[in-house]
């Protein structure tokens, strides 16, 4: 998960045509605005899950499979990795500058 910090009025752009703007920040809430093409559905997560459950009831093969109990977690709540798992070794290459 990518975690970004934004201030009121600042935006995040997804692809070439989706813009998410922070409109207001209050106590425990963030109000965002979403600009997306008409063919892109934008829903709150609970509405999306309800729609998916309804689609599944109508036609289980056509619905996108989702785990109804799965929710996004902020970075501080991600599962701990095993201490036995080594960190990946970065691959770096350096070139001398020509003068």
From TrEMBL:
GO terms for molecular function: mRNA 5'-UTR binding. Pfam families: CsrA (PF02599). It comes from the Bacteria. The keyword Transmembrane helix does not apply. GO terms for biological process: bacterial-type flagellum organization; mRNA catabolic process; negative regulation of translational initiation; regulation of bacterial-type flagellum assembly; regulation of carbohydrate metabolic process. Residues 76-86 have a biased composition (Polar residues). Residues 76-99 are annotated as: Disordered. Gene3D superfamilies: Translational regulator CsrA. The keyword RNA-binding applies. A translational regulator that binds mRNA to regulate translation initiation and/or mRNA stability. Usually binds in the 5'-UTR at or near the Shine-Dalgarno sequence preventing ribosome-binding, thus repressing translation. Its main target seems to be the major flagellin gene, while its function is anatagonized by FliW. Homodimer; the beta-strands of each monomer intercalate to form a hydrophobic core, while the alpha-helices form wings that extend away from the core. Belongs to the CsrA/RsmA family. This is Translational regulator CsrA.
